[in-house]
Amino acid sequence: GVPTNHTQQTQPPFLLYSRKQRKGERMLTPSQIRAVRILACISGTISVVGASLLVGSFILFKELRTHSSKLILFLSIADLGEALAWTLSPASDYSGPCELQGYGIQLFGASAVLWQACISFYLLQVNLGKKDLHKQEIYYHVICWGVPLLTIVGGGIGKIFGYAGAWCWVTKQYDVVGLVILYLPALVCIIFSIAIYVWVGVILNKTPEDRLDSSNGQEDSIKLHSMKKQLRTRFYIIPFALGWIFGLINRMHNAFSPNRIPTLFVLQAILFPLQGFWNFLMYGLTERIVAPQSMRDLMLRSDTRRFFVQHLSKLRCQENVDFWLDVERLYGMRYPSEERTSKACQIYEQYVVPGAPDEVNLHGHVKDKLGRQFHTRTFEEHAFKEAQTEIFDLMRTNTTAFEKSPEYKEMLAELQSKEAMTGQIEGRLLVS
Questions:
Q1: What letters, b where the CB count within 10 A reaches 16 and e where it falls short, cover 233-270?
Q2: Which residue of 189, 292, 351, 409 lies most exposed, with the fewest beta carbons within 10 A?
Q3: Tens of pLDDT along 184-215?
């Protein structure tokens, strides 16, 4: 009979675009390959340690088991699997461990970049105030595990995994296929995440209630808190992009050029397997986020004040918060003299005059002093200072009950959702 080419008969249609080694193609030398493999193994080992610490923290500490931390856990599991694949040192270029390394890099590498994109999307939804985000978790799993699984099943059928030039992944003749199933999706995820983090930065910059102007600078710490959140968010994407950019450049070069550039292999071998370590630095060792540490902090932060207002509403004393904030705004605004007096009169009629719509509980001598200034329309510069301090002290007596209330627990849970991307919430409200 006529001899047949079994390779061509069994090759799936989507793998027909392959190439043979081109004439004059210059590969890495054996010593360069050994050096690159050692670097990749070292970087992979470092990431194994970092990813393991993140996974272990989630298992050991119950307070970290929030929904947002679960997303970081799944990212860490993918990082751990990918890092373990990089630590493999196959005995030969086409051995079982070689194929195992190829499968591992593809499955867990693709999964990690998809989990990072899902975390970015989750962060955006949190800052947009979306609710019931935990219900989306099943879709994240379908995307982040299902899509990579399909690529390795298809790649296994086509037998594309093997020696890739210095380590094992998609073999050299399928360089373009490798770009399509890993690096191009990674590029899309990087651009997607950058766009989201820029958008989140814009959202964080548009929080007017967190930027109450004050003549005595008492809100500086609140402004600094918002700025730190914005800066941290923008830095998330840097290690994420660094881990992929040199690999993308190297693979694109290999797909369309007959020569290999050792420097690109070295950079990829160092940076690409370190993805788990980068995420450990970002999510495990960043500055801890604290709950409001004082009454003033609690009152000036819009993301925490509303929970305290809800608590006081149940005690029928929300007017204390409204009065305190209106006085704070009065002192913070640089009104002309006439408008300032008008605003002061409005506050007096709203909260102080007997029978006022939202009358607050003030000592008689404080009310009398404000009444005399109201009738003469000559309010002192800090006319409401004594009244504001009295109401502040009154609200402070409610903080102990607030710390035991459902509203306080809900506040901490929301802060955890927003801030767990950089660390855990710690601390308690200080009565000061």
A1: beebbebbbebbbbbbebbbebbeeeebeeebbbbbbe
A2: 409
A3: 999 999 899 888 877 876 765 554 444 443 33
Structure tokens at 264: 């690109």
Q: How high does pLDDT run on average in the chain?
A: 76
Chain segment 64-87, per-residue pLDDT in tens: 666 777 888 999 999 999 999 999
The 10s digit of each residue's pLDDT in 290-330 is 444 456 666 666 667 778 778 877 777 788 888 888 888 88
How many angstroms separate the first and last alpha carbons of the chain?
Answer: 94
Compute the chain's Rg from CA coordinates. Answer: 30
